[in-house]
Amino acid sequence: MNPTVDYLRISLLDRCNFRCQYCMPEGEELNYILQQNLLKPEELLTLLREVFVPLGFRRFRLTGGEPLLRPDVIEIVRDIATIPETQDLAMTTNGFLLAEKAEALHAAGLQRVNISLDSLHPDTFDKIIGNRAKSRWKQTWEGIQKAYEVGFDPLKINVVVIPGINDEEVLDLAALTVDRRWHVRFIEFMPVGNANLFTHKGWIPSEELRQRIRQHWGLQAASVTGAGPADIFQIPGAQGTLGFISQMSECFCDRCNRMRLSADGWLRPCLLDETGQIDLRSALRQGASLPELRQAVGHLLHLKPEINFKDRDNGTLTGTYSRTMSQIGG
């Protein structure tokens, strides 16, 4: 049985103030979307109200690049939050600008936040994010603390585990859940637009990470389950949970309930397969009617189960993706 597709990930822009290798590969020349080609707030709201909501979308996540770099991010949050059908509104951020914006985001109606934190060691953190200047770890950590303080609860921490870089920190990162209502999610490093990083296996299977944690603390299935692809566990007695997103070692295509809308208006039905994308921005600006757009997106929804399973690894091993993760909307 195919899941109900009701979750739209919305990239607000493709730029970022970090340059993590798994998202923006070093040495790659990225052609950033020109300002005039970004979806305007009114275009985004029209698509949500007149196309996506009528087709059953109820849950929205703002991503990037780094969404907090967008000057009108608070207004966009407020506008989406006021759509009556919105059941869940979340954001994925690197947290660097979160301390100054967390309170306003929460007041505007943002319900949940996922923050990327790939290391607890400033030097390792700066290496992963491609930073060669003053360390950015402290300001990122302060953003996480501020988000929790203003009421984003539960708060999720995303960790991309990279062999030889931060994999020795798995136990320390898991420990963040013991006395905090934080949800730490370990994500298998994913070769989207990163072909040069995958001359050998660049990811660690989630089961191997679970086994490390199991041997140290014990590990049990959590009573709280998520609506996304993560398998949720808990250290016995911990306040928070541990999630494992295993897109490389444990296919979860049969659970996929989402589509992705890029900052320039391309609707993508599957992260791992570029089949069937629709340029909604161009169609909207060229005068396509809203019923026509609804029909096109509805057709893609109908095709999505087949797209999920056909050529799941399209591009993964050959490096044929036309966009990096930052350009897709991670």
Structural overview:
The chain has 10 helices and 12 strands. By secondary structure, it is α/β, with parallel strands linked by helices. It has a 12-stranded mixed beta sheet. The longest helix is centred in the C-terminal third of the chain and has 20 residues, at 290-309. The radius of gyration is 19 Å and the shape is globular.
Backbone structural class: alpha/beta
Count, helices: 10
Which ranges are low-confidence, i.e. pLDDT below 50, for 5 or more consecutive residues? 314-321, 323-329
Basic shape: globular
Strand % is 15-25%
Kindly state the number of beta strands.
Answer: 12
What order do the strands of the largest sheet run in, or round the barrel if closed? 7-8-9-6-5-4-3-2-1-10-11-12
List the helices and strands and how they pair.
Elements: E1 7-11, H1 41-52, E2 59-63, H2 73-81, E3 88-93, H3 98-108, E4 112-116, H4 122-128, H5 137-150, E5 155-161, H6 170-174, E6 182-188, H7 206-216, E7 220-221, E8 231-234, E9 241-245, E10 258-261, E11 266-268, E12 278-279, H8 280-285, H9 290-309, H10 325-328
Helix pairs in contact: 1-9, 2-3, 3-5
In short:
The chain is an alpha/beta fold. The protein has helices at 41-52, 73-81, 98-108, 122-128, 137-150, 170-174, 206-216, 280-285, 290-309, 325-328, and strands spanning 7-11, 59-63, 88-93, 112-116, 155-161, 182-188, 220-221, 231-234, 241-245, 258-261, 266-268, 278-279. The protein has a 12-stranded mixed β-sheet with strand order 7-8-9-6-5-4-3-2-1-10-11-12.
